Each structure stands twice: as C-alpha cells, then as structure tokens.
Amino acid sequence: MFGRTLVFVDFLLHYADEKFIAEVDLKKIQPAPTHYIGRDGDERIVDLIFQCPLKNRDSNLMAVIVFEHESKSLKKIPQKLLKYISAIWDAEIKEGKKILSAPYFIVLRTGKKPYRGKHPTLVESLPKSIDGKPLGHVPAIRYDVVDLPAWDFDKLIGGAVLRLTLGMLHKMTGGALDEFPAALLPLLEIDDERQQIELTKELLDFVAVAMRAHNQRLEQEKISEALRPVFKERERTMIKTIFEEQQDIGEARGRAEGKTEAGRNMVLAVLRARFKKVPKEIEKAVCKISDPIALESWAAQAATCPSLDEFAEGLK
Known about the structure:
By secondary structure, the protein is an alpha/beta fold. Among the domains are: 1-125 and 136-148; 238-315, no CATH class. Helix content is 49%, strand content 9%. Helix 8 (235-275) packs parallel to helix 10 (292-304).
C-alpha cells in the first residue's frame, strides 16, 4: 500500500518535517525512476523512494522510507542510508545534473514497542581518538524515525489512508473477520471520490483473500453492510461495479487461458503427427509457454523443423 502515491503523500502530511512539506509540491510527487534505485547497477534499494519536486525550482528531494520490522536496534541504518543516497547521486551525475537531489530519510518501524533510544550515527561505528572524538571527516546522515504502534492500531494518529490500510490489516490478520466494516470508516475522510473507490476495491480484494484463508466467503450482503456507512445510498452501485469488474476480469482471464491451452495442444499435436512420439522434456517445455502469440510461432516451427532435436534446441 505504501507504493501508492496517495498513501505516501498522506503519510508525509502527518509524519514528515513541516519544513520539508512546505518546500515540496505535493501534487507532483511520484515514485522515483527505476534507474535511481539501482535496477541497472550494483546497488539495489529494497525500500521505497519517491521523487518530490520542489516548488518553483528545478530540483528535487528524494524521500526514502526505510522499513524496519521488529527491530530492536537501528545501528545499521546510517550505513544503509549512505549507500542509498550515493546510488541516487551516482545516477544523477551520469545524467549530467548540476544540482543533485536532497535526501530525506524516514525510518518506519512496526515493532512491538516504540523506539526510545538515541538515533545511531556513523560515528559510533568508527574509531575515536584518545579524547573520545571521532577520527577522520565523518559524514552526517540524518533521518527521522516514525513508530507505528503495532500493538494499538485503533489509537494510531495520522492520515486517513494510513489508518485505513493499517486498521484493515490489523482486523483481518487478527482473526476478527466480522470487524472489518469498522476498519473502512476512514474512507469517509477521503475527498477524492476516484481514490476512495479505488481503495475500496483494493481493500475488499484483500478482505476476500483473508476470508478464504479462514474458509469463509465474502458475500454481497456482508459487503453491502460494510459499505453502507461510507457510501450511504450508493453502496448498491458500488457493489455492482466491483462484482461486474471482477467478473469481466475473470472472463477475460479465462479466455486468455483457454487460448493458451489451445496453442499448447496445437504445438504438441503437430509434433506428434510428424514425429509420432514426443519426449516428456519437450512436452513440459511447451506447457511452460504462456504467451499465445509465442505458441503460434512454435506451432509453425513444429510444422517445419527438420527434427525433434532442432525443435528442442530452440526451446532452450
């Protein structure tokens, strides 16, 4: 859920530094381009990074959310953040940027207890002189720490979207499947109707999966009851829209799977007609092909290849 820009902006508004918020154009925030997060390089960043354009200036802040689950110590955080900003700056320098993006780091903890200690720094991992001062020129890595009290979601302060998503997770994973309507109430605070509907669909999909895990089914009557406080008299329209879309998606997926299966059968039928017996290794390789267009090409290959060995070599 944090990968959604809406959730990220909502989170920033309630947890980020006010000076940072004042400088950023919130409407233009977007996930950072892939080359900033090391997809093509050696440094892979597994947390979330968003590009935050500054108001009336041709420069950005790179906001990084670092997820720490059940962490008792933040000792490794400074080194990790130094790697992150180095990877981002390397990419920007290669692009020829004269003004590099400023980093803004938020460590998001979901431990059982809040983090009350001093934020670790790079200095603590390096040697010190006799008087206790750090040796060398040590870079300072500043970051904020936000604790999400996993033990008390109901009292979580902050944005509607964040409370909505975390509350839903809490209700569903805690086994209280009948309580999920209460977790939907923060939807009332979302003014953007399109975003409200999109989040509702995503959350109901999650509820359906969670209920299936408990051998239960999400019935339309239960959905109607849950959506009534949020959508008032529109819950029937919402339910119809959701179920119609799911049905359309299911039918389209079924047609695609049917076409794929027919393509596999065609390839194998041609091979059997020409070479009588088809080795199991080739059958398994053909059955792994899921692209209908690719299967059409392989059917043509099966009809023209001089031998099974040559056909099998092409499948590798």
